[in-house]
């Protein structure tokens, strides 16, 4: 999905070629993943000659929210507290991340939220 959001419309072969250096996936693996994403409504395609051109039909922020809700329900019984405690208990969390979480919780009434980069923005703007 990240590649589709970054690149826009792409054929599967273009996505395979654009994978980061350490990632080597077979064409069929990428195609299978794209088809699953299409079935879930995250991706759509159009035909151009013999090739299918795929594009994301869900914004990255929207997809992230849906998937977080899914994880929250499936693994944490819809408990935001359990999710946050799990994140806080992660040994890899940095002091800066903990501070941003503290700030976000302190300002949970809508005065500030965290954006994708972990920066606080005023008034819930993203």
Q: Would you give an account of this structure?
A:
With 126 residues, this protein is α+β, with helices and mostly antiparallel strands. It has two domains: 55 residues, Arc Repressor Mutant, subunit A (Orthogonal Bundle), CATH 1.10.10.10; 63 residues, no CATH class. The protein is built from six helices and five strands. A three-stranded antiparallel beta sheet has the order 1-3-2. A two-stranded antiparallel sheet has the order 4-5. Strand 4 and strand 5 form a beta hairpin. Helix 2 crosses helix 3. The two termini are 20 Å apart.
Which structural traits does this protein have?
elongated; 126 residues; 2 domains; two-stranded antiparallel ribbon; alpha+beta; Arc Repressor Mutant, subunit A
Low-confidence stretches: none
Number of domains: 2
Rg value: 18 Å
**How are the strands ordered across the major sheet?**
1-3-2
Structural class: alpha+beta
The tally of strands reads 5
The geometry reads as elongated
Helix content: 40-55%
- Residue fraction in strands: 15-25%
Q: What sequence of helices (H) and strands (E) makes up the elements?
A: HEHHEEHHHEE
Q: What count of helical segments does DSSP give?
A: 6
Largest sheet: 3 strands, antiparallel
Q: What is the typical, i.e. mean, pLDDT?
A: 86
Briefly, what is this?
The protein has helices at residues 2-7, 12-18, 27-39, 60-76, 80-88, 95-106; strands at residues 10-11, 43-48, 51-56, 112-114, 120-122. By secondary structure, it is α+β, with helices and mostly antiparallel strands. It has 2 domains: 2-56, Arc Repressor Mutant, subunit A, CATH 1.10.10.10; 60-122, no CATH class.
